[in-house]
Fold this protein.
Amino acid sequence: MTAPDNNSMHMLEEVTAAGRRARAARPSKAVPLAGLALVVLGAMPFYFRWPSGAGWSNSSGVSRLSGYGLVEHPTAAALYWLVALPLAYLLIVAYLVRRGSTSGVRLRARRVVGWGLSLFAAIVVATVIVPQLELLPGDVLARGLTPLFAISGGIMLWGVLDRDYANFGIGSLAMAASAVANLYNLENPILAQGVGFDPRYSLLLNLALPGIVLAIGAITVAARDRTR
Amino acid sequence: MTHPTHALDDVVHQRTRLGILAVLAEADSVDFVFVRDTLALTSGNLSRHLTVLADAGFVDIEKKCPDAKARTWISVTKRGRAAFKAELAALQKIIDQATGYTKGK
């Protein structure tokens, strides 16, 4: 190999090594992903359905965010999202800023937080503030899990803006799981097997799916970061 | 026919500056001290190279003073990121071509 070729190879090796050191020092995206997984799974206690034979409550005001009266405590479920999601994003900002400041390698926090909160605000506007405009189809709103779209959409956009294909992939999978959770009763395959299933817990399965996707995504990213 | 070395940018194709861009490409912004320590440079040496990169529009330099402790944050611009990618592609082409010549022998 001639001199320019040797130099080129050494330069590429040094570039790779320098990039690897920077990647190892930057804040891990596993922490925000884990935090958002916890927010999704933390909603479970608020999504017990009415017992069979019990009357549904009418959805009105803020409780429209938790669907068409399927859950026992719609207002509490709605308030959970209105408090937990912004709080989670605040903690994510604090983590990214603090970790970046300590290590000297920063990721811009407003990307994940800005997009996630904007999408959530749009869903709240469409569902609670101007429901008469029917901006979202009723099938999507019925189960009251539309905040999942905001979470997964925010992660997808974060991946696009950061050119992070893993993050985009996790966000995409979470988006698919969110669509299933909002449009389909996940207990149906269980019931089809003839297994008895208390319908009070059906929405917990719908929450578990995107929550588990995000949790596995967080573990995957953590494993990826350790090997870098 | 042009050789891949013609695609190399003189501003980017310098060992230290290439290393700087490699570090900056992995984050939104990086602390001056982190870049200095990662590349084992002196502050003066790093400042000189950053000036060259900033004059070419490849990096932005921002000085902040949180809690009375001044910190300098450096970020790569879109132009700088594109120049860095082009440089990596040119280097890889040179190596691939050399490997091809070697295998052909």
Remarks:
- Chain A touches chain B through 26 residues (CB under 8 Å).
- Strands of chain A lie at 105-106.
- The radius of gyration of chain A is 21 Å.
- The mean pLDDT of chain A is 86.
